[in-house]
Amino acid sequence: MKKTVIALFIGGALAAPAAWAQNSTATLEQRMLLLEQRLQAAETRAQNAEKEIRQLKQAGPAPQAAPAVAVVSATPAAETQNNRAAPSLKLSGFGDLKFYGDVEFNMDAESRKGALIGDRDNDNEKWDINGRILLGFDGYRTLDNGHFAGFTAQPLADMTGSMNLDDAAFFFGRENDWKIKIGRFEAFDMFPLNQDTFIQHSGDTANDLYDDGHGYIYMMKEARGRSDSGGNFLVSKQLDNWYFEVNTLVENGSSLFVDGNYHGRKLTNDKNVVYVRPVISWTQDALSLSAAMESNLVNNAYGYYNQQGSWVEQSKRNGYGAVLTWNGLKNDPDNGVVLNLNTAYLDASGEKDFSAGVNALWKRFELGYIYAHNKIEQFDQRALAECDDGCWITDTGTYDIHTLHASYQIPNIMDMQNFNIYLGTYWSWLNEKGGDEGSQDRYGARVRFKYFF
């Protein structure tokens, strides 16, 4: 038994080195094979890299990505590094957002003689610096099917230290087809004045158009919009060369008149007016023709009580206008001529007004003339005690207003395309037909600094 155990032990000891030698040889062969496979893979990757480099050299430099929004912080860089993430500006992702600005400051010199507008300091010259800075925020989103929606907001900071608002509107529709617009804005311009720099007369703003006792130049603006007492709802349609628009303005109708006075009487506002202003326009190359009307649809919106205590309506106002425009700048930006021929007629309670104007722009020089004919059919002279010598229209009758205006643009100040200076001047005078007194005139000049950003 002992001999058997000893024999087995000796046999195992002799067999173990042979088995180890066989296993070691197999492991070494596997390692060599694995190393060879890795060398082949590395060689393949090197060949692919060389191929990609040759392709990049042939294709040229890669296009740069669109610049991202840069956020500049006044915080020191060392403190910013303590933030968990770098400062960023994030948008909602619903379309594009644009921020822009419009700087406009004026230096004016003008007379007060005759006071064709409602300035009561008669016979005093006026020296003035005025202006404002507009900040614009526009949002716009369009889809592949042409549908779009957007908004605009334009706060104004003026030199009086107050904040105002130019436009604030929401719109939507289909591109080159139809659009709906709601808010505060101006509709189609039916009395364009070309390079409008300095034109002073009664009837030159959206609200407080009519200053009692002074001349009125009717320009189809009463229902155009941008009112301080109401809002607009506009529907428009583009059909080939034709453009159709219907603007509806709901507002306090007596806001049209300065201090609520009309023909020597204080108006009482009973309800808001609803103006409807349809426009049709046709354009072919540089030529365009437009026609429109505006009318208040609400009866007895405002008026006054006579001596018998009876109500007298004054809210009837129907206007009509037409414009012919030639815009030669479309085909010739350097030497093209822009020409406007404007006309408008107003049939109102106790008054009939007609206006016509022509203006032309060529090589940054603009010249224009406006004629207005006012026929006053009602006037209460008892209110004259409240009106000083600045009032020129003091009775029924026919009055004519003539206005000449001119301007010139000095472009690219300091080689900046967004910085221009405008020189403007006007001369306006009023005559009473059949009156004994001479004409009342007013004139002025302006230097305007215009900067866009």
Automatic annotation (TrEMBL):
Domain of life: Bacteria
Keywords: Coiled coil, Signal
Stored InterPro entries: Glycoporin_RafY
Coiled-coil blocks: 25-59
Segment forming the signal sequence: 1-21
Pfam families: Porin_8
Name of the protein this chain belongs to: Uncharacterized protein
Organism, scientific name: Phytobacter massiliensis
